[in-house]
Structures are given as structure tokens and as C-alpha cells.
Write a structure and sequence with these properties.
This protein is α+β, with helices and mostly antiparallel strands and about 350 residues long. The protein contains ten helices and nine strands. The protein is elongated and about 100 Å long.
């Protein structure tokens, strides 16, 4: 399951729902009081009901009196009378009050860090998490899986498929994502947030293409199928070969970058696997998370506009997991809130539809 864009957090949903609840209560209360006033008006007009029975030799009149209202009903009726006499003011003032409350949403900040949403601040769990992240800087892993769209020819170790993989990776390396934070527009690229194995190395990207980025190798755009097979055979058998170490300066075993093969039959692989490592420390975590948002949008657009490509891209990011959890929470809470409003509206409509049901009796 893929995550489409950045979703509003559960905490922000709670803030919005609070304003809706206040608005609902204000208008519901006005409605109830007005309805009670109408009940009072009907009761006063029909306080005495004359039933005339024509029986010889004369006319008999029977008078039925309805029971008086309770003290609470009288107070509600008085308040309802006040509202009816000042209808415009009683409608405008609650609208202004609710609008002022809703104005606070302009400063609502979207919070999508699960630790901040569900772990109490300054608790032991929060302190342990901060210490662990600060000490070890556990990287954020972004995983891309490339498979052939044509199931009849599932092997991905072809020259055309490798060139497509290289094109997508170059697109990821070069794209710039813009986001707004504290009223300012910021830009972030992969090189700004990626982890490097060494100070003079490139971003830590584990991929088949790393076998071809060494200065001693032929660039991918100029490869032939035979040359590609030769290089892959050498690098699969000995990933520590200096000619197979790419810009990241890491020896990458084939089990990390291809999949779907048995034993050492590497050329039967049915998928490429590309893994990108990002910083997760306190100083760069926010930028990494925003870059992940841009990565999701980039890959979604790629899949949508390049349907003729040989490879299909499937992907998962740290952001995907967080957003998926938040999406489930949001859907659950929204459903419960809607059900509560619906039940309350039906209950009020039914109980106030007739004065004879005795709403407060």
C-alpha cells in the first residue's frame, strides 16, 4: 500500500474536531430551546380542549386540561422566548464566537512524529528514545523495488532494464523538493540528507548501478549486453573487487541489490532492490522527512506518466509507515465522530418532532 502525499495528523484532526464539537453544541442548544418554546406555545394554545358530545336531550361539554410544565421546562421556555425575540442576535453571536475559535486553526501545525503524538513528553520512553537516536543516529531507510511489467520475461538483468533503473536513480539524486516551514520556503536534495560511509564518498545508495560507477568501468549509457554481463558476473562473485566499488565506496553483495533468484543463479533475478539511507538525527530529521514526501510524490508521478516503461517501481519509505498509521487513526476517528453526530441529530429530530413525547418529562 502506498501513501499519497502528506496527510494531516491525528493531533491536528483532534483540534479541528474540537471546534466542530463546539459549533455543533451551540447550534444544537439553540435548536433545542427554540423547539421547547414552540412546545410551550402549542401547549398554551391548546391548554383547554373542548370536546362536544351531542346526546339527547341536550349538549354535554367535557373539558380536558393538560398537566403543567415542570420548573426546568419553564426555564427553557423562557430562554427560548428570549431567543425568539432576539433571533438575529442569537444567531450572529454564536457564529462570531465559533469563527473566533476556528481562527486558531490558522496556527495549527501538522505533527506526524509518532513519538510526539502518542508518547508523553519527558517520560522514560521519550527520554530513552531521544538518547538512542542521538547516540546512534539510526538511519532512515528508503527502499525501491523494480520488477518487470511483462511477466513472461521476468528477468531484470537486461541492458534496457538496467538503463531504466539508472535513469530513475539519477532522477532521484537530482530532484529538489521545496517545502514551507515557519513561513519560509526551504529546498532539500538527496545529497543534503543522505548518509555517507566516508567523508569523501557519495551518498550511501545500495544498487546494482554502483557496480558501474567506478572510474574503471564503462558508463551505463555506453554499455552493451555482453559487457554488462561480464561486469555483473565479476562483481556478483567478488563484490570486494576494487572495480566493483562505486561512488559510495562500499562493497555491496548481490543479496542486497537483487532478488528472486535461487542459490547463485544471479541472472535469474526478478527484481532490482535500491536502498537509500538518510540521516535521522535531531538536526536533520525534519529535512529527511520532507525529502521523503517529495520522493513519494516523485515516484507516484513517475509510475503515472511512464506506463510504457519496462520496469514497475514499488517503494516504501519511513514516511510511508508513519503516514499509513496516521491514516488508519484518522479514518477510525472520523467515522466515530460522524456516527456520533448522526445519532445525535436523529435523536433530537425524533424526540422534538412532537410535543406529546415528553422530552423532559
Amino acid at each position: 500500500r502506498r501513501v499519497h502525499g502528506d496527510r494531516i495528523s491525528f493531533l491536528c484532526d483532534m483540534q479541528v474536531s474540537l471546534q466542530l464539537v463546539i459549533a455543533y453544541l451551540v447550534f444544537a442548544f439553540v435548536f433545542v430551546v427554540f423547539a421547547l418554546y414552540k412546545i410551550r406555545s402549542q401547549t398554551t394554545q391548546t391548554d383547554e380542549v373542548h370536546h362536544v358530545l351531542l346526546e339527547p336531550p341536550g349538549q354535554v361539554t367535557i373539558v380536558l386540561r393538560k398537566p403543567p410544565l415542570t420548573t426546568f421546562q419553564n426555564h427553557c421556555v423562557d430562554f427560548g422566548t428570549l431567543i425568539e425575540d432576539n433571533t438575529r442576535s442569537c444567531f450572529v453571536l454564536p457564529v462570531i464566537a465559533v469563527s473566533l475559535l476556528l481562527a486558531g486553526l490558522s496556527s495549527c501545525q501538522v505533527e506526524d512524529d509518532p513519538m510526539k503524538l502518542w508518547v508523553p513528553q519527558k517520560s522514560k520512553a521519550d527520554d530513552d528514545h531521544n538518547e538512542f537516536v542521538h547516540t546512534y543516529d539510526v538511519p532512515r531507510a528508503e527502499t525501491l523495488v523494480f520488477v518487470m511489467k511483462d511477466e513472461t520475461n521476468s528477468s531484470v538483468l537486461t541492458l534496457d532494464a538496467l538503463k531504466e533503473l539508472y535513469t530513475v536513480e539519477q532522477m532521484i539524486r537530482n530532484f529538489t523538493y521545496e517545502y514551507e516551514f515557519e513561513g519560509k520556503v526551504h529546498q532539500v536534495r538527496l545529497r543534503d540528507v543522505c548518509i555517507r560511509a566516508f567523508n569523501d564518498s557519495d551518498c550511501m545508495v545500495q544498487s546494482v548501478t554502483e557496480y558501474f560507477t567506478n572510474l574503471h568501468q564503462i558508463p551505463i549509457p555506453k554499455l552493451t549486453q555482453d559487457t554488462m554481463n561480464t561486469i555483473l558476473t565479476d562483481c556478483f562473485s567478488n563484490p570486494r573487487n576494487p572495480h566493483c566499488v562505486g561512488h559510495s565506496k562500499l562493497a555491496i553483495p548481490p543479496s542486497l541489490i537483487i532478488g528472486g533468484y535461487n542459490l547463485n543463479h544471479y541472472f535469474n533475478a526478478t527484481c532490482y532492490v535500491t536502498t537509500i539511507s538518510l540521516h535521522n538525527g535531531q538536526d536533520l530529521r525534519s529535512r529527511s522527512m520532507n525529502w521523503e514526501v517529495g520522493l513519494i510524490e516523485l515516484l507516484e508521478n513517475h509510475n503515472r506518466h511512464h506506463k510504457e516503461n519496462l520496469l514497475k517501481v514499488m517503494y516504501s519509505t519511513e514516511r510511508s509507515v508513519v503516514d499509513e498509521v496516521l491514516h488508519i487513526e484518522n479514518e477510525t476517528f472520523t467515522g466515530v465522530l460522524f456516527a456520533c453526530y448522526f445519532v445525535a441529530a436523529v435523536f433530537l429530530s425524533v424526540r422534538l418532532s412532537s410535543p406529546w413525547l415528553g422530552f423532559f418529562s
